[in-house]
Write a structure and sequence with these properties.
mainly alpha, about 90% helix
């Protein structure tokens, strides 16, 4: 019975990972299409989402998107956008193994995101901060 459960689990895990890959491509492509027409805070949110999806695999490819999000956030002077842009830059530094720079961005993001009540993103920042401290 135990072997049967292990086989079922492996099958489900494999099926879900294939679905996740399809979902990733579908989501990323739809975000890229929306980005062409977006401006202001909406553009920052889309850039943040794209960086969040791609940074674990291609952090340097994400850097221009995160830098654009930061520049636009500073121009808009929108705290929510500033928090997301700092988080995106932190993700890039985290996945590039630049942990000191990542911590700077994550701490900036935490300070801002606590005020904006974006708890999911705040939790992601704390998760990355904890991972850095556990692994270094």
């Amino acid at each position: 019975m135990k072997n049967y459960l292990i086989i079922v689990f492996i099958f489900l895990a494999h099926s879900l990972s294939a679905y996740d890959l399809y979902d990733f491509e579908d989501t990323y492509d739809s975000l890229a299409q929306r980005l062409t027409k977006a401006s202001g805070a909406e553009r920052v949110h889309i850039l943040h989402h794209m960086v969040t999806l791609l940074a674990p695999w291609e952090p340097e490819q994400c850097r221009p998107m995160a830098e654009e999000a930061m520049a636009l956030s500073l121009e808009l002077n929108d705290p929510e956008c500033l928090g997301l842009a700092n988080q995106a830059l932190g993700d890039i530094e985290f996945y590039s193994d630049n942990y000191i720079k990542a911590l700077d961005h994550f701490y900036n993001a935490v300070d801002i995101l606590e005020e904006t009540m974006l708890y999911k993103e705040l939790g992601r920042c704390y998760e990355k901060i904890g991972t850095i401290f556990l692994n270094t």
